[in-house]
Amino acid sequence: MATGRTHRPATRSRGIPEATVARLPLYLRALTALSERSVPTVSSEELAAAAGVNSAKLRKDFSYLGSYGTRGVGYDVEYLVYQISRELGLTQDWPVVIVGIGNLGAALANYGGFASRGFRVAALIDADAAMAGKPVAGIPVQHTDDLEKIIKDNGVSIGVIATPAGAAQQVCDRLVAAGVTSILNFAPTVLSVPDGVDVRKVDLSIELQILAFHEQRKAGEEAASDGAGPAAVTREESARSADQGPDGDVPAVMPA
Ligand SMILES: NC(=O)c1ccc[n+]([C@@H]2O[C@H](COP(=O)([O-])OP(=O)(O)OC[C@H]3O[C@@H](n4cnc5c(N)ncnc54)[C@H](O)[C@@H]3O)[C@@H](O)[C@H]2O)c1
Fold first, then answer.
1. Which residues bind DNA (predicted)?
2. What's the pTM?
């Protein structure tokens, strides 16, 4: 079984901090919406508000890209879309495989947002022989027996795992051995991968738990302000204590 670290250090080799990299997709989403409305330029304040990020942080992030905007005019929307897309590697097509085509895998396969962002679903893989050949989102499901060949034939470097937790490490090991170097893991388990392999995990139940934490704090604040209880915890303090940035700008996907 593969061992070793599960994510890269906090700063990438080109000097862009991981926290900045994690915010680039937020800027890109906001900029794409502006571009679709043919908005030519945007101020750092407007863009920060649209991306849900603090504007000083945005300016610092863009300084890593060498993008400083023009005083009184702001940032050129189209150029920034290009710059961020290039930085994220989205100016090329990325073939992706999804392993585990149950409820979640099928929903992901049907999600149109991958293709529009440069991620092509190259193959769907499942261990259930009864599913082999059946189309999901117009793509025939292939059996796990062929996993290695599918990865090689399609030049896949990004794999999405949507299997039950108990199967995820074994699937991960096979993907990595076949040449996959980036994994998006939806299974509720921690994956172990060798150096050079990036794992990101998505866990909506963790996001809900964080919201539940804030709900509980809000209820506590209200109770404290109604009566003679102890000083209420501020919203900002409660956000920090949930290991989230003060701007609430940590995306739902996180390093493994
Ligand atoms: N991250 C999230 O927010 C989130 C949300 C929903 C579900 N999940 C997780 O996603 C996973 C899938 O959930 P689901 O509801 O789609 O389950 P599901 O039971 O509907 O589908 C799982 C699929 O994986 C296949 N499978 C099992 N072992 C396999 C293997 N070794 N190789 C390839 N395929 C294999 C099964 O045949 C099945 O088709 C679970 O781990 C679940 O906990 C995560």
1. 26-65
2. 0.77
